[in-house]
Design goal:
Blueprint (H helix, E strand, L loop, with lengths): L5 E8 L7 E8 L4 E5 L6 H9 L6 E6 L5 E4 L11 H6 L9 H9 L13 H13 L5 E5 L7 H12 L4 E5 L3 H7 L2 E6 L2 E5 L6 H32 L5 H19 L21 E12 L2 E12 L3 E4 L7 H9 L6 E6 L5 E4 L12 H6 L5 E4 L2 E4 H7 L16 H14 L4 E5 L7 H13 L3 E5 L3 H7 L2 E7 L2 E6 L2 H8 L7 H16 L11 H28 L4 H4 L1 H37 L1
Parallel strand pairs: 3-7, 3-8, 5-6, 6-7, 12-18, 12-19, 14-17, 17-18
Antiparallel strand pairs: 1-2, 1-4, 8-9, 10-11, 10-13, 15-16, 19-20
């Protein structure tokens, strides 16, 4: 086995109170691809800074192979006094490096090199920082949330670029698809220690659940052993004094072991405050157009959004996603066309850029608006500390200034503010930025349970696939098209990845229009009788299956059913499993036929 390029041994670090890192070990071999996983606040970024030589631990050793080059991508890059992005990227090159890489990577990342680094947007700053760390082709790349603020096309380009390099990678990211595609081993930082497996992120969650289940069993055994020891000491043979003293010492050791056990951190308790139900029609847009000068942002776009729809909007940075959302929700007027909002609409919005947060205000003030200790949640007062705990903030943080919160903490704060307002339409602009995987899971569950409508702008492919029911994607020149299903469904229907530039995005649209205008010699495909019949009857079948599942679930919700009637419990469990299988098959068949129908109509 090749010697490690970088090795961390027995790393310990404490910032007062509970140790952040307790004897952490991490080895990275040449060309190894490691994803570093852990909860927000677990110390992932700190550990990466220690690996980069930026932070000094309390104890432990850091070893880097002599001559090996290390580049570290922080969440918030420091551009120093550099006047242009090109000067910034070139400053990271050594005398023997290829000087052309700086311009090449900036061009690939849609930057000219002449930009002032201090005037860049979040996405532009991230792209410049990526060019800085990639240009020297280092032996080791330490990447902290590399996909934050990047659009989907740039994320996919970065995946391909990293996959084609020989550099060893250590990646912190909340983007499941990115980690799955790149990682080959997983380091899980949990309660100050690292557990590592030689498998990529795709295997992580199942492995983590096994580890936690085994840990829970061990703690249960320990509790039973303590009870047994206590019972023996109380009721054992009193004449065996030496033996009693030894077992008493053993009991003290067991109690200390139990006392020192650090359980897993709790999950965020995300719940949207729901207003009264909106009308069935939420938004209807007909032929809306919006331009800024000569640039068309939206051109003749129509859609109909109904209650409980989950609409995803994707596209490159600058494509006009936020403008489109503002047009749909009444925040901006179209140049032409009409937008009709449904009845009884209550909108809650999550701002991507956190611009509504006053950096000098405290955490509690940001939640209450500076008005006492109460926050209105769903129209009812709740103590701010209790609400903070729902979003994994400690009581001691109530006076913490917003400006010192981590990216993940600011993300949870914005969610807390948005979800406190009663709503039946949630508009979420990049809600996944900086959130850890566990909080993303809870957010996904919350959106699944939310009875209102969701409009989601996101660059997280996995999150889109899990949450949305349709996707709106740009095609260039202000054209937007809506596709049924999630991101992967959109790609399969569209037949191509998102283009990285508007000019490239226009080309396939023009070709499609040319093909549509040209006469076709082939006979037009039609739906068969059986396909038509299935398309008409499947929705009713799915509705019936949903009702059956709900009825069966109500039976299983009886906590005493298993004890009262084992046969009924088994039969009901089997019936609900069959119903779920039938529903899944029906939904898959309906989506397949609906896609086929749309292809035929557009041909």
């Amino acid at each position: 086995m090749a010697p490690p390029l970088i090795q961390l041994k027995d790393i310990r670090l404490t910032f007062g109170g509970t140790p952040l890192l307790s004897g952490v070990e991490l080895n990275v071999a040449p060309s190894e691809r490691v994803c570093l996983i852990g909860r927000n606040g677990s110390g992932k970024s700190t550990l990466l800074k220690i690996a980069a030589g930026i932070v000094e631990p309390d104890s432990g050793t850091r070893f880097v192979q002599p001559g090996a080059t290390v580049r570290y991508l922080p969440q918030e890059p420091d551009f120093g006094a550099h006047k242009t992005t090109l000067a910034y990227v070139e400053s990271g090159l050594a005398p023997g490096d290829d000087q052309h890489q700086a311009r090449y990577l900036l061009e690939q990342l849609s930057l000219t090199g002449e930009e002032n680094p201090h005037d860049l947007s979040g996405g532009e700053a991230r792209r410049a920082a990526l060019a800085f760390v990639l240009a020297p082709s280092p032996d080791i790349l330490l990447l902290d949330e590399p996909t934050n603020h990047l659009d989907l096309a740039t994320i996919e380009w970065l995946e391909q670029e990293l996959d084609g390099r020989r550099s060893a990678l250590v990646i912190i990211s909340h983007d499941r698809r990115f980690l799955t595609n790149l990682s080959r081993s997983t380091a899980w930082l949990d309660r100050g220690r690292i557990k590592q497996i030689d498998r990529g992120f795709a295997s992580f969650e199942a492995w983590r659940d096994e580890v936690l289940a085994e840990e829970e069993r061990d703690q249960h055994k320990l509790d039973r052993k303590i009870v047994d020891e206590e019972h023996w000491l109380r009721h054992g043979v009193s004449g065996r004094r030496k033996r009693n003293v030894k077992r008493l010492a053993n009991l003290h050791a067991l109690r200390a072991q139990r006392r020192n056990y650090r359980g897993t951190a709790g999950s965020a308790n995300l719940a949207a405050s729901e207003a009264e139900q909106s009308g069935k029609l939420v938004i209807e847009a007909k032929g809306i157009t919006k331009a800024f000068g000569e640039r068309k942002i939206v051109e003749n776009f129509s859609t109909r959004i109904q209650r409980s729809d989950r609409l995803g909007i994707i596209g490159p940075n600058g494509a006009g996603k936020t403008t489109l959302v503002n047009l749909l929700t009444g925040g901006a007027e179209p140049d032409s066309g009409t937008v009709r909002l449904g009845a009884n609409l209550e909108i809650a919005t999550l701002d991507q850029h956190r611009e509504s947060l006053d950096p000098k205000s405290t955490l509690a003030e940001a939640l209450t608006g500076g008005r006492g200790d109460q926050i209105m949640v769903g129209g009812k007062p709740k103590h701010v500390v209790g609400y903070m705990k729902d979003f994994l903030f400690a009581q001691e943080q109530r006076g913490t200034p917003v400006e010192v919160l981590s990216g993940g903490e600011r993300g949870r704060l914005m969610l807390a503010r948005a979800l406190a307002k009663p709503s039946n339409l949630l508009v979420l602009d990049e809600p996944t930025n900086d959130l850890d995987l566990e909080t993303l899971d809870v957010l996904e569950e919350m959106l699944g349970d939310y009875e209102g409508t969701v409009i989601l702008i996101s660059h997280d492919r996995d999150f889109l696939d899990r949450v949305v029911t349709s996707v709106i994607a740009p095609e260039g020149s202000g054209k937007w098209i809506e596709y049924a299903g999630g991101y992967s469904d959109m790609l399969s229907q569209r037949g191509a990845d998102l283009k990285r530039e508007a000019a490239k995005a226009q080309a396939p649209v023009e070709k499609k229009e040319e093909r549509a205008a040209a006469p076709s010699s082939a006979p037009k495909r039609k739906l068969s009788f059986n396909e038509k019949h299935a398309l008409e009857t499947l929705p009713k079948k799915m509705e019936t299956l949903h009702a059956d599942i709900a009825r069966l679930q109500r039976v299983l919700d009886d906590p005493n059913l298993y004890a009262k009637d084992r046969k009924k419990f088994d039969d009901t469990s089997a019936a609900i499993a069959r119903a779920h299988e039938e529903l899944s098959a029906a939904e898959e068949r309906w989506l397949e036929l609906e896609m086929l129908r749309e292809e035929i109509e557009q041909a």
